């Protein structure tokens, strides 16, 4: 299935790119930050599925859809649940995703797109919210870690370290297990020993990610995916 993304927020674009990359049957034709930028590609008629943000510069996603004579199937994305419900008045929209959304919720939308030509199910606002925190056991005490406050997860030998905005925790474990537990819409592995909260990145310099006072090395095989997630190109 050939698809396009129209999303003005680069981190949100990166989440969709990452999710689509997991599905070999999905072909991404392009990513755009406004509907006007994407218009020429859409007019070719090659797009089967469009991921469309509601809040866009110049013209909103819903207003833009009204201008199309033969639109593709559409999955709306929005940070505002009330907009998602309103968007269901338009027949070409088969599903919506309220940010932040999990891969499982994304996959349900894809399955619906592959199995229907128009919406058949009423929306359930926030039916599957992404968890906002997790508990870790350190020194026989449970500590609540909010994902938005977690900056870096690293591993060395048999230990995992978590650096939050205020404190560092260390405990037995491995990075592979924690990669499965952390939400993909916020965390990305950039080195064999490091995962970062890419929404907290301040910059990238000399093959290091800058997060506040921390400089995290970027592994060679992880750099391309990091740049794609951030919506930039390596021009070195």
From TrEMBL:
Recorded GO molecular functions are:
DNA binding; phosphorelay response regulator activity
Which ranges carry the Response regulatory domain?
2-114
Positions of post-translational 4-aspartylphosphate modification: 53
Q: Where is the HTH LytTR-type domain?
A: 134-232
What domain of life does the UniProt record list for this protein's source?
Answer: Bacteria
**Which controlled-vocabulary keywords does the entry list?**
DNA-binding, Phosphoprotein
Read off the InterPro entries from this record.
CheY-like_superfamily, LytR-like, LytTR_DNA-bd_dom, Sig_transdc_resp-reg_receiver
Could you identify this protein by its name?
DNA-binding response regulator
**From which source organism is this entry?**
Sediminicola luteus
């Amino acid at each position: 299935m050939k698809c396009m993304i129209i999303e003005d927020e680069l981190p949100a674009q990166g989440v969709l790119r990452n999710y689509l990359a997991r599905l070999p049957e999905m072909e991404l034709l392009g990513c755009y930050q406004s509907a006007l930028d994407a218009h020429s590609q859409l007019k070719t008629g090659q797009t089967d599925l469009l991921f469309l943000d509601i809040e866009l510069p110049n013209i909103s996603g819903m207003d833009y859809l009204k201008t199309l004579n033969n639109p593709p199937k559409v999955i709306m994305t929005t940070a505002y649940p009330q907009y998602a419900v309103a968007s269901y008045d338009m027949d070409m929209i088969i599903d919506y995703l309220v940010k932040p959304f999990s891969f499982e919720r994304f996959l349900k939308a894809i399955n619906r797109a592959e199995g229907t030509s128009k919406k058949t199910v009423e929306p359930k606002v926030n039916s599957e919210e992404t968890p906002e925190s997790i508990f870790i056991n350190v020194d026989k005490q449970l500590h609540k870690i909010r994902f938005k406050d977690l900056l870096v997860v690293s591993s060395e030998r048999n230990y995992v370290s978590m650096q939050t905005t205020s404190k560092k925790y260390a405990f037995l474990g491995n990075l592979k297990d924690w990669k499965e537990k952390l939400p993909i819409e916020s965390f990305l592995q950039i080195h064999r020993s490091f995962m970062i909260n890419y929404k907290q990145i301040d910059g990238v310099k000399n093959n290091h990610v800058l997060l506040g006072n921390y400089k995290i090395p970027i592994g060679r095989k992880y750099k391309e995916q990091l740049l794609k997630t951030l919506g930039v190109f390596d021009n070195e």
